[in-house]
Design a protein that fits this description.
By secondary structure, the chain is α+β, with helices and mostly antiparallel strands. Helix content is 42%, strand content 24%. The chain contains 6 helices and 6 strands; from the N terminus they run H-H-H-E-E-E-H-E-E-H-E-H.
Length: 175
């Protein structure tokens, strides 16, 4: 079974399930490690935001908003500009992720929906002396952004592109 086929089957299991499906159960079903399932779920959830992660496992829910994943690149000096641009145009930044050739997809929840959230996030970065997740991949990263409409997501993408943040997907990222 290919990775693409496994992800399709995982999605089908979640849609058909009556409740939460733990990653450990999916790992056993598909004969892979739990970490492989977690990576698969990061990719699947980027396309299907109605899938939520709970302490009992993954649950497929109803779609209540529109989402799109944007691949972007910038240095640490442009974090505030990038995040502010997204929220100022009606977006909620749900997560940040990187696609690492050795480790696979690594994601972190964000839920940034206002300038105040942006300021607090940037302040936490500075206070903690932490680095950005994208620093592992030379500034390349992805944001899953939620908005009220596809048109709003189009506007956000246009503004990110005008500001020089958007970068094209590589062939291996389109799987």
């Amino acid at each position: 079974m290919t990775t693409k086929e496994r992800r399709k089957e995982i999605l089908n299991k979640l849609i058909e399930a009556k409740g939460a499906v733990p990653a450990k159960e999916l790992a056993l079903d598909f004969g892979v490690s739990r970490q492989i399932i977690v990576g698969d779920m990061a990719i699947i959830r980027a396309q299907y935001p109605e899938i939520i992660s709970t302490n009992r496992g993954y649950v497929y829910g109803e779609k209540s908003a529109y989402t799109r994943e944007f691949k972007v690149k910038h240095g640490p000096d442009r974090v505030k500009e990038e995040l502010t641009l997204i929220v100022d145009h009606g977006g909620i930044i749900r997560n940040v992720s990187i696609s690492h050739r050795a480790y696979g997809r690594i994601s972190a929840e964000m839920s940034i929906s206002s300038r105040q959230d942006v300021t607090e996030f940037v302040d936490r970065l500075v206070d903690s002396k932490s680095t950005l997740l994208g620093s592992v991949t030379s500034g390349y990263h992805y944001h899953l952004v939620e908005a009220a409409s596809e048109e709003r997501l189009d506007l956000i993408e246009e503004k990110l592109d005008e500001a020089g943040f958007i970068v094209p997907l590589l062939p291996w990222e389109k799987e």
